[in-house]
Write a structure and sequence with these properties.
This protein is α+β, with helices and mostly antiparallel strands. It has one domain: 2-Layer Sandwich (Tetrahydropterin Synthase, Chain A). Helices cover 39% and strands 24% of the residues. It is built from 3 helices and 3 strands. The longest helix is centred in the first third of the chain and has 23 residues.
């Protein structure tokens, strides 16, 4: 009988620990998508440190890979995954004409757009 009480107490303690961890956990959803885009890096044509990639000064094509995560605050579709992905994809229609924008600049712009729509989910 003592073994049973110890086992039950251990099992209860483990359950409570898992519950505490689950309740305190940060939750995120993430989506991925790709878009074709055209851009250029003017500095690559003039900076000697970029001589090996000087061709990037000209317009060139990329497939831009987006990997976007956003915090959610409960586990029952706080932000519905499919709707979030469709909304993100709708922001980038057709071939993207990005001129001089770097991947990092595109990311910063996207962050601002997401933060405007989901201000409580952005840290």
């Amino acid at each position: 009988m003592t073994d049973s009480i110890v086992t039950d107490a251990y099992m209860q303690a483990q359950h409570e620990k898992r519950t505490r961890i689950t309740d305190a956990a940060k939750r995120f959803i993430w989506v991925t998508f790709r878009r074709e885009g055209i851009h250029r890096f003017p500095l690559a044509g003039t900076d000697p440190n970029l001589a090996d990639v000087a061709f990037l000064a000209n317009e060139h094509r990329h497939i831009f890979h987006f990997n976007v995560s956003i915090e959610v605050f409960h586990n029952d579709r706080d932000i519905e995954f499919i709707q979030f992905k469709r909304w993100l994809e709708s922001l980038y229609q057709g071939t993207l004409e990005l001129n001089y924008k770097s991947c990092e600049m595109i990311s910063d712009d996207l962050y601002q757009t997401i933060a405007s729509r989901f201000p409580n989910s952005i840290s």
